[in-house]
Amino acid sequence: MSVLLGLFSAVSIVAGIVFFVAGTVGLLRFPDALTRLHALTKADNLGLGLIVLGLLPYSGSLGAALKLVVIWALVQFAGATVAQMIGALAAGEHPPFRGRRRR
Amino acid sequence: MIALVLDGGIALLTIGIAAWTIRAADDFAAVVGFVAYGLILTLAWTRLGAYDVALTEAAIGGGATGVILMRAGARVKPAPVARPSKRARILVGALSAAVAAGLSAIVLLPPQPAPSLALEVRQHLASTGLGNPIGGVLMAYRAADTFLETVVVLLALFGVWSLGRDAHWGGRAGPAPRPGEGGALPLFARVLVPAGIVIGIYIVWVGADAPGGKFQGATILAAMAILAGMAGRYPPGRSSLSASALPAFRSPAPSSPIRPASRSR
Amino acid sequence: MADALTLAAIAVLAAVALGLVRVLRGPSRLDRMMAVQLLGSGGVAVLALLAVASATDAILDVALTLALLAAFASVALARALGDARKDGGETGR
Fold first, then answer.
1. pLDDT one-digit tens code per residue, B97-132
2. Domain total of chain A
3. Whose CB among A27, B66, B162, C32 lies 3.0–4.6 Å from C73's, allowing a Cys bridge?
4. Sequential DSSP letters for A70-88
């Protein structure tokens, strides 16, 4: 049982690291701000999420596990907001208050 | 061995980011570098086992100071950069190196035994009812010092309040959310500010027996207040002491003709 | 176990530190901001890994504070950039 748990943790954490590396590679290699934003948000959400998922079995107590989940929720929410704001800036326009965007 | 690699990596990053920040091209880049420096320094303090300091660095260096510097930088008129002469730069470099060498000597080669009151602090900690020695120092042994810090900040606030121009007080605190800006920032503030307040109070509460305390918790609460102001969540008030008194919330250039939309409610 | 987690922390830190090159090069301010945001999330991940590796709950509190406030700094930077664009037609360099 604990071997299975250890395997699950290892796979999850390695996957999280892969997403962080992917985020960095995207940030460095993608051509413009919007595509780099795409790479960044993957690292934020999935990278941290998978690492937190892998750490949950070994967190030691229910309180610590809950804290890990809260941390992930905070980072995800903040990452989503920052992505929206950076996206609006990168696109160079603010969405209209009412009505449709003109392309 | 692995710990050495981690610590060495953090140390190199710290120095690298600091060097880059000093040579940054403009204000924005310097502030960004400073925030990054705060983040890496948090890791360094954590590895050193100074969790209270790491908490403070995360709260202040990682978040609050970056915002304050940003707002201040936006207010300062861009002045022509005056490059100091080569001789001045060499002199400053030599002085900084001397200070760094002095500090390193004190830290790496302390007089034996190193003068410290840590033993007495621990011995008498039980009588204060606290489990965190740093909390004991701040709240019990040096309580007057902590209280007077608050008094100093209040005096500074009164000074700014008295000396600031009347035109800067009252009205909406912080820039108004522009029409069409969308719901990202107000939604963020709506959800995060209550959560942040709970977390701030939690950090104060947990600081009794574990790393934490009033300093870090108060910084979190202040950051939440700034966030609420940034998102325009404060109702406009006429010379209200709480919101508009704090310079961080003032809209820049109230007489600027460029943004007529922000003058409306 | 602890060693493996510390190794993972090194990996995340290395990956995220490489992203800092974007702060160096980033032609626009947005790029610099994004690299710092990545450093923030990476820092939180490193702290979480270290917390479980050393079974210290205090590090989780540090990670919690960092998560709360690093995003706040990014939002403030983005907001300041938006203000600058609106006011003076800032090109974002």
1. 999 999 998 888 877 777 778 888 888 888 878 888
2. 1
3. B66
4. HHHHHHHHHHHHHHHHHHH
Establish if A48 belongs to a structural domain: yes
Spell out which residues of chain C touch residue A33, defining contact as CB-CB under 8 Å. Answer: 28, 30-31, 34
A15 in a structural domain:
yes
Positive or negative, the CA dihedral B249, B254, B257, B260 is positive
Q: Which residues of A touch C28 (CB under 8 A)?
A: 33
Task: Give tens-digit pLDDT for C14-72.
Answer: 988 888 887 777 777 788 888 888 888 999 999 999 999 988 889 999 999 999 888 78
| Position B175 pLDDT exceeds 60 | no
Contact A20, A43 (CB under 8 A): yes
Asked, for residue A6, whether it belongs to a domain, the answer is yes
Mutation target vs A (from B35, B39, B191, B193; most A CBs, 10 A cutoff): B191
Name residues 214-243 of chain B within 8 A of C (Cβ). 216, 220, 223, 226-227, 230
pTM of the full predicted structure? 0.81
A89 in contact with B at a CB cutoff of 8 Å? no
List beta partners, residue B237.
B171
Residue A73 domain boundaries: 2-91
Determine the residue type at B63: G
Q: Which long-range contacts (CB under 8 A, 24 or more apart) does C88-93 make?
A: C88/B258, C92/A89, C92/C28, C92/C29, C92/C30, C93/C27, C93/C28, C93/C29
